[in-house]
Model the fold of this input.
Amino acid sequence: MKIEIPEQKTLVHEMIIPIRWGDMDAMGHVNNTSYFRYMETIRIEWMVAAGFPPDPTGEGPVIVNAFCNFYKQLEHPGDVLARMYVSDSARTTFETWCTLSRTDDPDTVYAAGGATTIWVDFPAQKAAPLPDWVRAKFFK
Done:
């Protein structure tokens, strides 16, 4: 099953991630699990920069599903240009999207993925309403 990234989304963060030799597999390309690590890396960096770093004693986002479409192989050496987007806020959830390109080929999407994110009260271990400040900052 292939899930397409929507046209209606907001760019919230960009970063460059080096492709490490250890990200490669025996087939000579970046292993599929590394793509999910790249998406995790930009998602966490965005959350910290946005003011809601992971905090098990408070509230914050949790990923409830994730996917990745692989379009073209990434290979070492090189750098990944990761772009993070958000869309579709609801009472307790929103969608995150990520595109992965190479810095030397920024217009080609090598992989694209996303995740449904739910806002959680960690001590209570249950969903909580998306805070107004998060909604105002990212979902206009």
Summary: The chain has a mean pLDDT of 94.
